[in-house]
Design a protein that fits this description.
It comes from Pseudonocardia zijingensis. The protein has 362 residues and is mainly beta. The protein has two domains: 132 residues, Sandwich (Jelly Rolls), CATH 2.60.120.1390; 165 residues, Protein of unknown function DUF2961 (Jelly Rolls). The strands form five sheets. Strands 3, 5, 6, 11, 13, 15, 20, 21, 22, 23 and 27 form an eleven-stranded mixed beta sheet that branches. Strands 1, 2, 4, 7, 8, 9, 10 and 12 form an eight-stranded antiparallel beta sheet that branches. A four-stranded antiparallel beta sheet has the order 14-24-16-17, with no helix packed on it.
């Protein structure tokens, strides 16, 4: 039995019990600057008509309007500090057409540039419950993010509406103002899509990332354009000086996401699951009328097992099914991905900015 007079090592202490000098702040349409004592003071806003009999302090400004073709600034924060939680919601028709961007420490180039729905594992514009350690999506479209997002001099978070219709957006961004450890990296997230993937090619999740850091998360929105099983392809991580062959190579797509044997439970077929670190949380089946293709949403968070690199990182996934003679079939599917990683710099190479046609779910 431990001696009660012997102090516990710091690693054994619960972080939630430690008193800190950090200051908690929160930005929302009800407090757009996050300033102390400044919440709920609006006299105009999207709730002004509903609150006309009650007045100031009664949910006068619960959301913002983002007209088509415009960019809304959700948060502008002076550091140092860390974004701890984001809650946001809008109509599902805008999940793919709203581009979420995050800039750290005054960098003009975003570290995060991802469609809003995909950032929360909802790339197909249809709700799927997701219950994980860092992303939770709850009925009906309550997006929650707990990725730690440190910054040193400042943070800027924006939302661009690439669609044809105005979007109404509700959000709350909670952060702590506190010193950031020297070894803390900056959160990055990148989105890519092949629609369809060219036969014989692999889908790239990351390419050209330079610097020191660690890879922490993958989301795939995968639509099949062929019959039969589609997930034989391997996920590969090319670290630092890797060229033709990677350092890390998995055994199959469903294996990488923690499943097995085609996600196919005998008698039940494809079976969804959502866990703290990985899941197949979305299965959209053919509608029985026009034989619409099956669509899937999968995630894996490398939180207890980050993939560390010193100088460079490239990640891709093969698209393989089966054909006659027990041979692999190179697929030409619609594959979109989000890759999350921490890096020792505020920006790195990223893909071209997608337009409305690139983002559209067809």
């Amino acid at each position: 039995m431990a001696n009660p007079e012997t102090p516990l090592p710091s690693a054994a202490l619960l972080s939630t019990a430690l008193i800190s000098t950090a200051a908690t702040r929160s930005i929302s349409p009800e407090n757009p600057t996050g300033a102390p004592g400044a919440g709920g003071g609006a006299t105009e806003g999207t709730g002004a008509t509903a609150a006309r009999d009650l007045g100031r302090g009664w949910k006068v400004s619960p959301s913002i309007e983002v007209p088509a073709g415009t960019t809304a600034r959700l948060a502008e924060i002076d550091g140092p500090g860390v974004v701890q939680h984001i809650w946001i919601t809008t109509h599902p028709s805008h999940w793919r057409s709203l581009l979420l961007r995050m800039h750290w420490d005054g960098d003009d180039e975003p570290a995060v540039e991802v469609p809003l729905g995909d950032f929360f594992g909802q790339g197909w514009g249809e709700f799927a419950q997701l219950s994980s350690q860092v992303v939770a999506v709850n009925p009906h479209g309550g997006f929650n993010c707990y990725w730690q997002m440190p910054f040193r001099s400042g943070a800027r978070i924006t939302l661009e509406n690439t669609g044809a219709e105005q979007a109404i957006v509700y959000f709350q961004i909670t952060y702590a103002l506190a010193p950031v450890p020297e070894e803390a990296g900056y959160l990055h997230a990148q989105w890519r899509r092949d629609n369809p993937l060219t036969k014989g090619e692999t889908h790239t999740l990351l390419d050209g990332v330079t610097g020191r850091g660690h890879y922490v998360g993958t989301y795939l929105a995968w639509a099949t354009n062929s019959t039969g099983w589609w997930g034989e392809g391997e996920v590969k991580f090319y670290l630092d000086d890797d060229d033709e062959l990677p350092t890390i190579c998995g055994t199959g797509t469903e294996d990488y996401f923690g499943g097995a044997w085609n996600f196919d439970v005998p008698g039940s077929g494809y079976t969804s699951y959502t866990t703290p670190y990985l899941g197949l949380h979305q299965i959209l089946r053919p509608d029985g009328c026009y034989r619409s293709q099956q669509r899937f949403g999968m995630y894996r968070w490398h939180l207890p097992d980050p993939i560390r690199f010193e100088r460079a990182l490239r990640v891709d996934v093969q698209a393989l099914g089966w054909r006659s003679g027990h041979r692999y079939l190179q697929l030409q599917d619609d594959i979109a991905s989000v890759a999350w990683f921490y890096l020792d710099r505020t920006s790195t190479r990223r893909p071209p900015v997608p337009d409305a046609d690139d983002l559209e779910v067809c």
